[in-house]
Amino acid sequence: MMAKFLPLLVIAVVLFVVLNLAAGLIWVERRLLALWQDRYGPNRVGPFGLGQIVADSIKLFTKEDWIPPFADKPVFVLAPAIVVATALISFAVVPFAPGFVIADLNVGILFLLAMSSLGVYSVVLAGWSSNNKYSLLGGIRASAQMMSYEVFMGLALLGVVILAGSFRLTDIVEAQRGMWFVIPQFLGFILFLIAGVAETRRLPFDLAEAESELIAGFHSEYSGMKFGMFFVGEYIGVILISATIALLFFGGWLGPVLPPAFWFGAKTMFFICLFILFRAGLPRPRFDQLMSWGWKVLLPLALINLLVTGAVVLARR
Amino acid sequence: MLSLVRSLWEVFRHAFARRVTVQYPEQKAYLSPRYRGRIVLTRDPDGGERCVACNLCAVACPVDCISLQATEDEHGRRYPEFFRINFSRCIFCGFCEEACPTYAIQLTPDTEMGEYKRKNLVYEKEDLMIDGPGKYPDYNFWRVAGVAIGGKDKGQAEKELVPVDTHSLLP
Predict the structure, then answer these.
(1) Which residues of B touch A (CB under 8 A)?
(2) pLDDT tens-place string over residues A203-260
(3) Taking the model in full, what pTM does it have?
(4) Taking CB atoms and an 8 Å cutoff, what residues of chain A touch B19?
(5) Residue by residue, what is the 3-state secondary structure of A215-244?
């Protein structure tokens, strides 16, 4: 009986934590951006302005849910759901603590990469179905950017896989008992961080939205909770990439004294803050710069990293 | 690439910098005495009205938000029968203050005049009148002006000579 309900309980807890964290990030991001810009940010609603989360949600839910008459309706409605769904499904393989994981797949990393690739569909379909030039441009940019950055995102991870000898996320974390993989795989970590930012379409790689040139890019035509879904999906993506970095390069739940879930949460939070710092501090590159960087610099670096890692592991054997 | 890291570090250091926001309702920003805010009508040091209803402020006003009607009291002193400023039109340019020959109309460093009903922004004379002399504490127009009013004849103002009697032949 208990064994039957335990996975359901884990799913419920994971959903609760992830969705609440995604909503809370609205507040965290605004407060942190404000901190780095010498402002206060939302600090009026409730203690520390935490009520802002509730206020924002109520605002989004009560806004007019407008589908433009020229849009492709079914696709237009489906697109925001995909981004949230794929991002949430990815959490199925994320181990929060030893034993606390929904599905401990033996190809966990591949599953993560596959799900984040599917997330591209959301953006492309949103841009296409909106039937709007700016949205379409945003969608095209997103597809080009995410596909090219996905290539070396996977390659950057392979170094970790070689060192751990497994695709399973729990094995990878356990393999870091002696040393976090960020030390032997520092280049891989940097590459994955860059690819991860591009993958979540966060600043400085938010060329799909680029409000100063494409208005809001792929979600120009979205309003109300459909827009909110893109927002939540983006935040879940940020949490996911941060959690992945923590798992693959910083020893996941491993840490002294305190409970494993705390270490995992703390490391994830650190990278979420780093994502927000990127937004606060970095300018957006031009699109051709972004693409040539991806293909001409980062991809060869990822390949070299993979080759060197493989050679070292082979030579040591 | 290194410059990106440097700018990230620079931004991060701002976490420990002083925040520039003024938490408005609790803390108030300093407004200088010459700030152009709510308009008031001031009084003489004696407590009499300074405004002589010359209409210069109404003429100077670029948005025509000042309306007044001149009248005279039993001593021959001109004063406004009504004086009305529509603050929903006022742009706080301060031209009325510059135009005023008697320092009666003055702008104050007060900006908190929010209202829920627009018509409440139309200030009547009793809303505009204050009890003090404003920015010019010693100035009294009727004491320095060479106009005869009840209780003060020609030549009795400050620094004013007695008028020359043109009908007399004496030197």
Answers:
(1) 4, 7-8, 10-12, 14-15, 17-21, 23
(2) 788 877 777 788 777 888 888 888 888 888 889 889 999 998 988 888 878 878 888 8
(3) 0.79
(4) 34-35, 38-40
(5) CCHHHCCCCHHHHHHHHHHHHHHHHHHHHH
